[in-house]
């Protein structure tokens, strides 16, 4: 494990609300949030899962088993039109913001493949030099997410070298995949990004376990979505009417390598959360347990990663 170039990382968690189904307005909002966080001294700024153009929570796009609707196709096409081609104007805008303010930026998008019509749930990481240094596509969309996103393969487990150690991400329920977690551990991760749309209490147990298992910082970033944020131009207004007023209530927080809260979960509002990470805690926490080092048994158990 390399020595850290910087022993403290000031981080910002953007528990944001996208301008739903509007790529350009959400990109612009993200740029403004990057500016705000950077002005507060943040060097790493982390956004939720599929922030651009939004996570289409509780929508079905007209899918039922063996059938679909024309109105659902039209709503999906609106989502498709507002998804992000990588690279493209939207990623260039985010890259320029990262460069202007000299920060790392991690942000979730719905990505549209540049060749075919498939969408992916993707996480991007930009460097302070304005370069796209990591693109991770969600390996397995969960449940009805498979209606809109394909299985990711490209960029399965990319990691980024930072002044505070190795950083990488798994999206939402990927974090329940033991071998996916192990793949990041084997790459020496110190800052584990977990962008998601999980506001249930059990999720807090999950991220604490990951922090203890990997002896790393876990950055848990969710979003805040209300029913009133859904566009009235969608065909599925009856579905939207059934959504609770607070559709996703957040719970973003930071967990240290011992499984303790650095910042307590924040609920029921849009906000930016700040924390200062003491990176010395990472190697210290691994003194008696290093799951891919002295506490591993590669002669008995070995992980094969196909990249």
Question: Would you mind describing this structure in some detail?
Answer:
Helix content is 24%, strand content 27%. It is built from 7 helices and 13 strands. It is globular. By secondary structure, the chain is an alpha/beta fold.
In short:
This protein has 307 residues and is of the alpha/beta class. It is 24% helix and 27% strand.
List the helices and strands and how they pair.
Elements: E1 8-15, H1 23-39, E2 44-46, H2 70-81, H3 89-101, E3 104-112, E4 119-126, E5 132-137, E6 159-162, E7 165-169, H4 178-186, E8 189-195, H5 201-214, E9 217-221, E10 224-226, H6 237-241, E11 246-255, E12 261-267, E13 271-278, H7 281-285
Parallel strand pairs: 1-2, 2-3, 7-8, 8-9
Antiparallel strand pairs: 1-13, 3-4, 4-5, 6-7, 9-11, 10-11, 11-12
Organism: Candidatus Egerieimonas intestinavium
Keywords: Hydrolase
Protein name: Carbon-nitrogen hydrolase family protein
């Amino acid at each position: 494990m390399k020595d850290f170039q910087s022993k403290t990382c000031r981080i910002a968690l953007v528990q944001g609300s996208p301008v739903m189904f509007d790529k350009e307005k959400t990109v612009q909002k993200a740029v403004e949030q990057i500016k705000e966080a950077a002005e507060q001294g943040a060097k790493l700024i982390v956004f939720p899962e599929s922030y651009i153009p939004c996570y289409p929570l509780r929508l079905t796009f007209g899918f039922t088993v063996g059938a679909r609707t024309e109105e659902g196709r039209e709503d999906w096409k609106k989502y498709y039109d507002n998804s992000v081609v990588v690279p493209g104007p939207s990623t260039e805008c985010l890259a320029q913001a990262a460069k202007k303010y000299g920060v790392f930026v991690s942000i979730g998008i719905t990505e549209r493949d540049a060749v075919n019509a498939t969408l992916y749930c993707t996480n991007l990481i930009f460097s302070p030099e304005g370069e796209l240094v990591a693109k991770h596509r969600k390996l397995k969309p969960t449940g009805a997410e498979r209606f809109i996103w394909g299985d990711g393969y490209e960029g399965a487990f990319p990691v980024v070298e930072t002044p505070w150690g190795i950083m990488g991400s798994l999206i939402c329920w990927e974090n329940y995949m033991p071998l996916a977690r192990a793949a990041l551990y084997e790459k020496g991760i110190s800052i584990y990004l977990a962008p998601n749309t999980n506001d249930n209490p059990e999720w807090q147990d999950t991220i604490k376990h990951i922090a203890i298992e990997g002896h790393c910082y876990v950055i848990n970033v969710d979003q805040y979505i209300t029913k009133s944020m859904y566009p009235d131009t969608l065909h599925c207004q009856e579905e939207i009417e059934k959504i609770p007023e607070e559709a996703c209530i957040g719970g973003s927080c930071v967990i240290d390598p011992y499984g303790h809260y650095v910042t307590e979960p924040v609920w029921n509002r849009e906000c930016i959360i700040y924390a200062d990470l003491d990176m010395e805690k990472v190697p210290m926490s691994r003194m008696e347990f290093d799951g891919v080092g002295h506490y591993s048994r590669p002669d008995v158990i070995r992980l094969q990663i196909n990249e």
